[in-house]
């Protein structure tokens, strides 16, 4: 997981002056984080519908906002990208 998330964090941090590129990079990071979790995961690869889609979208947006606020606080020299991400994910209750 670290080897997938760290390059995405670096990518987001590089786009400090470009809001659109930064937002796209944060969205990519959020999608990767949520892909690794079992939140609203559909059975047998079926698309999410109804309340499950609504919950997923709310969690995705809250996590995106949390990461946009906190992403510059992460330093690559710090160990524990998983722990850092977990704390942010937990702050996006959905």
Structure explained in plain terms:
- This protein is mostly helical.
- The protein has four helices and no strands.
- The longest helix is centred in the middle third of the chain and has 21 residues.
- The model has no long low-confidence stretch (mean pLDDT 79).
Q: What overall form do the CA principal axes indicate?
A: globular
Q: Would you report the number of β strands?
A: 0
Order of helices and strands: HHHH
Tell me what portion of residues adopts beta-strand conformation. Answer: under 5%
Overall pLDDT, averaged?
A: 79
Structure annotation, total helices: 4
Low-confidence runs (pLDDT<50, min 5 residues)?
A: none
- Structural class assignment: mainly alpha
List the quaternary state of the chains.
single chain
Helix content: 55-70%
C-alpha Rg, in Å? 14 Å
Distance between the termini: 23 Å
Biggest pleated sheet: none
Task: Indicate the topology.
Layout: H1 2-14, H2 19-35, H3 50-70, H4 81-90
List keywords for this structure.
single chain; about 90 residues; mainly alpha
Question: What's a quick, concise take on this entry?
Answer:
The protein has 94 residues and is mostly helical.
């Amino acid at each position: 997981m670290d080897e997938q998330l760290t390059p995405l964090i670096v990518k987001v941090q590089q786009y400090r002056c470009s809001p659109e590129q930064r937002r796209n990079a944060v969205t990519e990071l959020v999608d990767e984080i949520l892909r690794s979790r079992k939140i609203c995961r559909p059975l047998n690869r079926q698309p999410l519908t109804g309340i499950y889609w609504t919950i997923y979208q709310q969690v995705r947006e809250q996590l995106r906002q949390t990461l946009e606020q906190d992403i510059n606080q992460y330093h690559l020299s710090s160990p524990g990208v998983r722990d850092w991400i977990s704390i942010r994910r937990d702050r996006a209750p959905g």
